[in-house]
Amino acid sequence: MGQAALRNKLHEFIDSSDDAKVEALYLLLSGNVSSGYDYSEGELTMLHERAEKYLTGSVKTYSVEESFSICRSISSER
Asked: Can you give the pTM of this predicted structure?
């Protein structure tokens, strides 16, 4: 698909989209995606401590599959 066709498709998408989709597309394309949240010094310290524990292997971690399995087993016990 050529550039002109891509531009036309993009225009059609924007013209037919709701405001939320248009805003999301704008944020994505403009590179201004941010959470709008600043971490406190305490939160950053905690995140760094947790990352260090993970990297050194001093804490037990779970894969996504293991996490789902644990949640399912707890859910089925209820």
From this structure: 0.43
